[in-house]
Design goal:
By secondary structure, the chain is an alpha/beta fold. The chain contains 17 helices and 13 strands. The strands form 4 sheets. Strands 1-2-9-8-12-13 form a 6-stranded mixed sheet. A 3-stranded parallel sheet has the order 5-6-7. Strands 3-4 form a two-stranded antiparallel sheet.
């Protein structure tokens, strides 16, 4: 299968490689890495230890968890036994952040009161007070989403049972229940999240810039956001360059990322779906991080209004400058809090020789040993991708990893092309991020 993938370099079917640190050989690991280097994008790599423990934590028997497979993009499932409506909810975390920043309103919808009134920014004396307001908005938004999904599920039960599909699963025949009534052995609903890294970095910027360094007051920050940082060059530069970033090992960034993941996990797991299963939070975005970004105003992390968000659980473009720290930060996330799966996109400018290939393979193992669940790659430079956008006729079969799937670069819309171009590229020899081309910096969300 690896050789066929290497030879054909086809977009579909999407190939995923499982790897168990204690069971699989280094030769297998290196061979998968070699194929990724050859195709420049596939297959994606999964850490068996993390995936199996995550499913076991959801009440799935060990023998079933060991037989896991991947749904759609990156969602984990006990194959043939678990009916996982893995994309039941797609929730924009930045919308909850904006509701907290603007007391229950959003710039995209003006003065309309959407969420609960959690207080004007002038009332927040500590970061913890703002964090509580943010959680209130997020909790409300999740409840609205779950309520809607439950209504849709019950309508599904009434109008569209699935007898043929039910016959192919373990559980429905024994229970005498259709899948949509909870006939499968395991039943869950998934909720994936858009704008994770942008939200975490914005929380970091508020905590550091407003409450620790006191570079501005909260009202001054809101005023700058409303102006899209026009006339606020010094503040904007500080927010972009001097506040903690998810993907680094800075204490504030680690704390806020872990707290957000933990809060989402506990909140979703408190709901039971219409089939008797739990809701599982996930972090994969397909192309929604580009579309949803077009609906959101400027953010405290320095992202300009209506720009794209970072994909999946990947750090914001150009924010994580050290490869080892990035792998440790993403790998260090409590994987039990991500039962619905994650998409972590990493880009290397090139793999030139055997030494690079060895470092590439070893870095994957290091990420898995840190606890990482999933990782996927694009092996291509900024310059190559910029040229491919300008001259698609010269790159008819350039395959890129988008979120949990692959696509031909020429087929993507311009927003998605720009997002893939601007993803941080790392140099395997130095372990540092490659500087983004100066003449193309207008593509970055923060410029």
């Amino acid at each position: 299968m690896l050789r066929i993938t290497e030879l054909l370099k086809t977009r579909d079917p999407s190939l995923n490689a499982r790897y168990h640190l204690e069971k699989n050989s280094l030769e297998y690991r290196d061979r998968v890495a070699e194929v990724i280097a050859s195709t420049k994008s596939v297959p994606a790599f999964y850490n068996d230890i993390a995936a199996i423990s995550t499913l076991e934590n959801q009440g799935i028997a060990t023998k079933d968890a060991r037989d896991y497979a991947v749904i759609g993009c990156v969602e984990l499932s006990a194959s043939g036994r678990s009916y996982d409506a893995s994309s039941s909810i797609m929730l924009n975390l930045v919308s909850a952040l904006e509701l907290a920043l603007y007391n229950g309103t959003r710039p995209a919808t003006g003065d309309e009161q959407i969420g609960p009134a959690t207080g004007s920014v002038e009332t927040f004396r500590t970061f913890e007070e703002f964090w509580e307001a943010f959680k209130t908005q997020l909790r409300w938004l999740i409840n609205e989403a779950v309520t809607l999904n439950e209504m849709m599920g019950r309508t599904h039960q009434e109008y569209l049972p699935t007898p043929l599909l039910s016959a192919l699963f373990e559980g429905p025949m024994e229970k005498g229940k259709d899948l949509v009534f909870g006939g499968a052995r395991y039943n869950s609903s998934g909720a994936t999240h858009i704008g994770f890294a942008d939200t975490v970095d914005s929380l970091n910027a508020i905590e550091k810039g407003v409450f620790i360094d006191r570079k501005c007051t909260f009202p001054e920050l809101i005023a700058a956001l409303k102006r899209d940082f026009k006339g606020d060059a010094a503040l904007h530069a500080y927010l972009v360059n001097r506040t903690p970033k998810y993907g680094s090992e800075e204490a504030i960034a680690v704390k806020n990322s872990q707290n957000l993941l933990g809060f989402l996990y506990e909140t979703y797991q408190g709901y039971t779906n219409y089939r008797g299963g739990r809701y599982r939070p996930a972090y994969w975005t397909m192309t929604n991080h580009a579309g949803q970004g077009k609906l959101s105003g400027a953010l405290p992390n320095g992202r300009k209004a209506y720009s794209i968000f970072a994909s999946g659980i990947t750090p914001v473009s150009q924010a994580a400058t050290e490869l080892a720290a990035c792998l440790n930060a993403v790998g260090g996330i409590n994987v039990l809090h991500i039962p619905g799966g994650e998409a972590f996109n990493l880009k290397y400018s090139s793999i030139k020789d055997k030494d690079d290939l060895k470092k590439f393979s070893q870095a994957i193992e290091a990420y898995f040993r840190a606890g990482g669940l999933h990782i996927q790659f694009n092996i291509m430079s900024y310059e190559m991708l910029i040229d491919a956008k300008a001259h698609p006729e010269n790159y008819p079969e350039l395959l890129v990893r988008v979120s949990g799937y692959s696509a031909y670069f020429k087929d993507l819309n311009d927003a998605m092309k720009d997002e893939i171009i601007t993803r941080t590229a790392y140099d395997l020899k130095t372990g540092k991020s490659v500087p983004f081309p100066e003449q193309q910096k207008g593509l970055l969300p923060s410029t």
